User: Fold Phosphatase from Photobacterium lutimaris.
Amino acid sequence: MKFVVDTHSHTISSGHAYSTVLENAAAAAEKGLQLLCVTDHASSMPGAPHFWHFANQRILPRFLHGVGILRGVEANIMNVAGEIDISTKVQGHLDWVLASFHEPVFAPSSSAVHTEALLNVIQSGRVDALGHLGNPNFDFDFERVLVAAAEANVLVEINNSSLSGSRMGSQPRCERIAEIGKEVGVSFTTGSDAHFAHDIGKFDSALALFEKVNIDEDSIVSTSASRFIEFLQSRGHASIAEFQSLR
Assistant:
């Protein structure tokens, strides 16, 4: 199994990452990736960029160092109502919206509160994927949320950084999320969650987890550029003419 899309990466614009878009794209090319999603933190995260950073992503070339560039965001789940901190106007310029819990924005609460927030963000129709769900600070009802994600065609991310120590305690939770996701028909994606170019396309821990749980390659959209593009179109995103030749 090989992953050719990194759907979660950060640049210096996130405020606590250390590489540029060009450096990340060069690293993606070295790793043999076909597509790279630029997903800096949305503005509610301390140190994150403002409105215009996301609105102006349309100036990014579609290819850098031979790697297709997708214009995206890692939005913050703001509250129990499932609101996210990217305006609908800006979202219209983006190819990809990942949404996650972050402690500085959403104070960890009970499993019931987290579950309600996740169900509401899924039902909002505004997000393409849920990021680093294995974080033990944000417990939730795995089955209810994963069934809802499968029904709404929202991806579940297996976050390599979480499995590599950035969110201690994530490993067993991610395994259980993958097991239940497999049972209920979830589709998955892989994110390096790189905050430095060296980690772009780093999926070793995610790969080991998928192999352990025996997740079918066809259930992971990041194993094929065309599969990922087809997923975006199934979510209602506009076709990207420059990517039509990718397989």
